[in-house]
Design a protein that fits this description.
The protein is of the alpha+beta class. It has helices at residues 4-11, 18-41, 49-74, 77-86, 94-100, 102-105, 112-123, 127-130, 166-187, 193-206, 210-223, 269-285, 318-333, 336-345, 355-375, 384-387, 390-398, 403-409, 417-433, 439-453, 457-463, 468-473, 477-487, 496-530, 534-566; strands spanning 140-141, 145-152, 155-162, 230-231, 244-248, 253-254, 287-289, 297-299, 305-307, 313-315. The termini are far apart.
Length: 567
């Protein structure tokens, strides 16, 4: 244990002015962009295949170390950014993401005397009076707070305390980020940077009020009360406030330490629990943990999953949850026009987008994804060249479009930014623990299970094996698409027998509906008459007579039509 004076010298974050933080961040960013450009455009061209692999390993390891040190030095929001990069092992080389793992829960801690002062400021008591055996060495230190272990009423607890002055540091970070967004908006991509900045500020601002985190943790625990495979720390309300949160200590290890699967092994239980939890959060409860980096998920000795740190959470309106569900169902059945409609409902399609062209892009992307998933052996450390190929540009040229034109057709609503980040983290964790399967492999079963439990019968038919769409999916692609186009009025066929059969089915449908109304009217009218409500009874009988006439006309018309066809 280091002394207080030493800790102050080595662990305190440097304080910069808002302008200084912006210039330091900007200089670091452009320096790394130039380094990447120089390597890929010049250095890489003069290396042999063997030398290229060795050089890239060294290059990305150095880049990861430099980014880690810079993020640690800046603290605050920059640490959050590094945590996100650390979870993208499916996109970035492992030599780059491995050094960034230190940002998950090994951020240099603040000296304990500062933590004691923050606790006393919150409750007016010395921390040792409440927790006599509190450990001065933190269990974990993160971007805005650190956690210490202690005992309270005979039970081991974790005490989370905000860093002194962290609110000021975050305020400076957000000002710097706003300037970065403004420059990106001006020189690279047009978007409403003010709204994006507002969302980021809202998300980070929540984390500086631990009362909100306590409410979120308690709410999530109530949602999962009937799920035996998940545990949540119990809150100690007496010693929880704006800058301090005390909760039950959960024994276990980080989810990424649960063991990496080898090829041919059964599915990873930790990943299975993780993906199922998010299926429930998003589609059932519409309330989700928005920061699922490995340091925030504990895999317990009895093989349960525990979520901690609810500083960042997200909520999904019912309309968005329905649109997300529709997107997955349409993707499963390869119904691309309906998929575009669902993307539009979610707010992902620009008003100026060419829908037919976008439908072709969606079709191409889904078919490419299917082929990519079937052809790829390992989903860890996937290279950029594997995802973006020359065939993509050829396809865009064939439909008379460009990458820039495609970007104009789609947009990402700011409300979906946290959810997009969550998906990126889940994909990264899945690739880390099970390199041979994807999130789709783990998510299909719980998603179907959730649909089967719902009240929407059309969704059950849509995914049920052997159902109408289950059979349709097995049809040849071109035939299936032709049927869908015909249904949408995009394609016409002159098949007299089919048309006659369709008319008969149409008439039969009307007759069934009419019969149902007749029976209902008679039943309801008799019931009302028995109760002495003659007015309602007469109305019900009138409805029965009306639909009886419609039924008779339909039957007569159908008979005459059949005679003409025979002649």
């Amino acid at each position: 244990m280091q002394s207080s004076s030493q800790s102050t010298t080595t662990n305190q974050l440097p304080t910069y002015s808002a302008r200084g933080r912006y210039y330091r961040g900007s200089f670091f960013l452009w320096k790394k962009i130039f380094g990447l450009f120089w390597y890929y455009k010049f250095v890489r061209l003069f290396l042999s295949s063997k030398s290229r692999e060795e050089r890239e390993l060294e290059f990305y390891k150095s880049l990861g170390l430099e980014c880690r040190d810079f993020f640690l030095k800046m603290g605050g929001v920059y640490v959050k950014l590094g945590q996100y990069f650390a979870s993208l092992s499916h996109l970035f080389p492992e030599s780059f993401t491995e050094p960034l793992q230190d940002l998950q829960d090994r951020v240099p801690p603040h000296p304990f005397f500062e933590i004691k002062e923050r606790f006393k400021k919150e409750f007016g008591k010395e921390i040792a009076e409440v927790f006599p055996d509190i450990s001065e060495a933190p269990l974990a230190s993160a971007s805005i707070a650190q956690v210490h272990s202690a005992t309270y009423k005979g039970e081991k607890v974790a005490v989370k305390i905000l860093y002194p002055g962290i609110e000021d540091i975050i305020e400076k970070d957000l000002k710097a980020v706003r300037k970065f967004l403004k420059r990106i908006n001006r020189f690279l991509v047009r978007f409403d940077f003010k709204i994006v900045h507002k969302e980021i500020a809202k998300l980070v601002g929540r984390e500086t009020d631990l009362r909100l985190e306590a409410e979120s943790m308690d709410r999530m625990a109530r949602y999962f009360a009937e799920e035996p495979d998940y545990v949540f720390p119990k809150l100690i309300p007496d010693w929880s406030g704006k800058s301090v949160l005390t909760a039950q200590f959960i024994e276990g290890k980080r989810i990424t330490q649960a063991g990496i699967l080898k090829k041919g092994q059964a599915k990873s239980r930790p990943v299975d629990l993780l993906i199922r939890a998010y299926i429930l959060m998003i589609f059932e409860y519409r309330f989700y943990h928005a920061d699922p980096h490995p340091g925030n998920m504990i895999y317990t000795p009895d093989e349960k999953l525990c979520f901690i740190d609810f500083g960042a959470v997200g909520e999904i309106p019912p309309s968005q949850a329905l649109a997300l569900r529709k997107i997955i169902l349409c993707a499963m059945t390869k119904d691309y026009p309906a998929l575009v409609e669902a993307l539009d409902e979610l707010g992902l399609v620009s008003k100026k987008a060419d829908r037919e062209k976008l439908e072709e892009v969606v079709r191409y992307s889904m078919e490419k994804l299917s082929k990519f998933l079937s052809d790829t052996d390992s989903f860890k450390n996937i290279k950029f060249e594997q995802i973006h190929t020359p065939e993509d540009l050829k396809f865009l040229k064939e439909i008379n479009s460009s990458l820039r034109g495609l970007l104009r057709m789609i947009q990402l609503p700011t409300a979906l930014v946290p959810l997009e980040r969550v998906l990126g983290l889940l994909v990264g964790i899945t690739a880390s623990l099970d390199p041979y399967r994807t999130v789709l492999d783990y998510g299909e079963k719980p998603f179907k299970g959730l649909v089967f439990q719902g009240e929407n019968q059309w969704q059950k038919v849509l995914v049920q094996e052997g159902g109408i769409w289950g059979q349709a999916v097995s049809l040849p692609g071109e035939l299936l698409q032709a049927v869908k186009n015909l249904n949408r009025g995009k394609q016409a066929y002159k098949l007299p027998d089919l048309e006659q059969h369709t008319k008969k089915m149409y008439s039969l449908g009307h007759q069934i509906i009419s019969t149902a109304f007749i029976l209902f009217g008679v039943h309801y009218g008799t019931d009302r008459l028995d109760k002495g409500i003659e007015t309602q009874a007469m109305v019900a009988y009138g409805v029965s007579v009306f639909f009886g006439i419609l039924l008779a006309l339909s039957v007569i018309k159908n008979k005459f039509s059949s005679k003409r066809n025979r002649q």
